[in-house]
Design a protein that fits this description.
transferase; Rossmann fold; binds D-gluconic acid; two-stranded parallel ribbon; binds adenosine-5'-triphosphate; nucleotide-binding; EC 2.7.1.12; 159 residues; mainly alpha; two-stranded parallel sheet; single chain
Length: 159
């Protein structure tokens, strides 16, 4: 989890490769209307996000019911969103990608071919509720290269 351009897709994929797990990108679960809304520079509301988050929670249940393990990239900016995703399961860990607005804005500006405009970064930070320690969160600084960040996460995952 983390704001747009914090590195969820890049780090999530690299972590899944490292662990030999599947990877699911929350961006692929958006209904087209959510993508278009953000492309047009409008932030999503709770109402826009609930069905999207539910479809990601369903995917977690579907894959794990088959015995699979997965890394999921999802902004999950508010605590209530994370509660929906975790839905009382004890085998899910939240990983928070922690970075300054300056660093993330730079990465966002350099990124090509993505629907999310840089103008939405302020609203992403306003919406963000940094996870509390009671959420058993693994928080990592994104001020490192991807290999270093994946190492930091993998070290903190329960074996
Ligand atoms: N640790 C890193 N060092 C340097 N560049 C990075 C790092 N992590 C991600 N990037 C780059 O930053 C940009 C944003 O990363 P990415 O697309 O993975 O973020 P995201 O959180 O999935 O974004 P979104 O939620 O908008 O889809 C990409 O161009 C990516 O290559
Ligand atoms: O506002 C949000 O909840 C998130 O930003 C997602 O909706 C975006 O799709 C994604 O993070 C950008 O690619």
């Amino acid at each position: 989890m983390g704001v747009s351009s914090s590195g969820k897709s890049s780090i999530g994929k690299a972590l899944a490769d490292r662990l030999g797990w599947r990877f699911a990108d929350g961006d692929d679960f958006h209904p087209p209307a959510n993508v278009e809304k953000q492309r047009a520079g409008q932030p999503l509301t709770d109402e826009d996000r609930w069905p999207w988050l539910q479809s990601i929670a369903d995917e977690i249940d579907r894959v794990t019911a088959e015995g699979g393990k997965l890394v999921v990239a999802c902004s999950a900016l508010k605590r209530v969103y994370r509660e929906l995703l975790v839905h009382g399961r004890h085998d899910i860990r939240i990983v928070y990608l922690d970075g300054s607005k300056e660093l993330i804005a730079m990465r966002m500006a350099a990124r090509k071919n993505h629907f999310m405009p840089s103008s939405l970064l302020d609203s992403q930070f306003k919406t963000l509720e940094v996870p509390g320690t009671d959420e058993r969160v693994i928080a990592v600084s994104i001020d490192d290269d991807i290999v270093g960040i994946v190492d930091a996460i993998a070290k903190q995952l329960p074996t």
